[in-house]
Amino acid sequence: MDLELRHLRMLCAIADSGSVGRAAAALGLTQPAVSSQLHRIERLLGEGLFTRSGTGVELTAYGAGVVSQARDVLVRADALGRRHMSDATLMTGALRLGVTNTPVVPALLDTLRDVCPDLKVSVCSVYATGDLLKLLEAGELDAALGVAYPGMPLPHSSALTCRAINTVPIFVALPAGHPLAHRVEVPLEELSKDTWFVASDDGVGWPDAFYDACRAAGFRPADTHEFHVLDQLQSMIAKGLGVTAVQPTVCPVAGVLVKPLAGDPLWQRHLLIWREEAVEGPVAEAVHHHTVRVYRNLLARAPHLQRWAASRLGEAVRRIR
User: Fold this and answer.
1) N or C: the chain end with fewer CB closer than 10 Å?
2) Hey, which residues does 172 pair with through a beta bridge?
3) Interval 90-149: pLDDT, tens
4) CA distance 153 to 202
5) d(CA 294, CA 286)
């Protein structure tokens, strides 16, 4: 069996939907056909790409890397035969871009200014992805960078198109003086007595995903604060006032450590969402392509994430041996 573009599109569809069944429906195939094809691909690659659960599927660490590479291949393949992305006739006009809590915005806007100088991008910062979806559906935004969680389908109409940028584990930020600071990975259940700062409802699955993970670990946080302003939050964590779940790209301040959670119980998907009637195909491709590149650069510069990735690779090698 040789990997073909259709196989890569299928892997991306499964990752985007969080379900083999939903991916099959989107691709116009049967669920058994997609499941069978996925098993053949996993046998070819020698390792599982997804873990199965009662709510769908989630990417493994290895699978996240494979899907990221698949997206790169598909972007390049889809660009064949088209005019170059920087063609002024294709990359002009205005783009109203909504963004949630994401570190990619500065570098992305800088890149788009260089590669698409005639595309006027205006940014609207909104905390909740659910609110971004409402603004998109109402025609007040053209595109948005939002988040979702594996196993929790994103609620949207057929007028919107979603494409995953990446799927990453959620880490924990804790004080440098925390009793678990020496751990390479922190078991979630051992944080059951800690005070947690928990971000408010984002309309697409948080904080439910967090509390589900806590429940699976055998506890519910007894003491929580609703808070999501990152700079103030890190200052409070540095003072030993609590812990919080964070994106793996976060840069900790002095007195704060960022650690993986043992067993990777929490994952987050970053998405580009747009209205097809408002965004030309080449513009959507350009925004997605450069967002993926910016995220990849940020992830490569996050030492705590690189250590996590190296440990997962080591585990995979040991399993193969």
Assistant:
1) C
2) 245, 259
3) 556 889 999 998 888 999 999 888 888 888 999 999 999 999 999 999 999 999 999 998
4) 14
5) 12
With vertex at residue 108, the alpha carbon angle to CA 104 and CA 110, rounded to the nearest 5 degrees, is 130
Q: Model pTM greater than 0.85? A: no
For strands 243-246 and 195-198, give the pairing: parallel
Helices and strands in the chain, H and E counts: 10, 12
For 286-320, how does the pLDDT look when each residue is reduced to its tens digit (9 = 90+)?
888 888 888 888 888 888 887 787 776 554 434 33
Residues 11-49 pLDDT 10s: 988 888 888 888 887 777 888 888 999 999 998 888 888
Query: Could you tell me if 116 and 132 lie in one domain?
Result: yes
Q: Which two tokens stand for residue 5?
A: 């573009």
315 belongs to a structural domain:
no
Q: Under 8 Å CB-to-CB from 288, ≥6 apart: which residues?
A: 75, 163, 165, 272
73 within domain boundaries: yes
Residues 280 and 192 placed together within one structural domain of the fold:
no
Strand runs labelled E in 100-230: 119-125, 143-148, 160-169, 171-175, 195-198, 223-226
Tell me: cis bond preceding 207? Omega within 30 of 0 counts: yes
Helices 61-79 & 5-17 angle (0-180, nearest 10) = 120
DSSP state of 48: -
Same domain, yes or no: 249 and 208: yes
Range of the domain at 98: 93-167+268-305
Same-domain check for residues 242 and 301 = no
User: How far is 205 from 129, CA to CA, in rounded Å?
Assistant: 10
200 & 262 share domain:
yes
Are residues 255 and 175 in contact, defined by beta-carbon separation less than 8 angstroms? Answer: yes
Q: How many domains does the chain have?
A: 3
* Same domain (yes/no): 278, 241: no
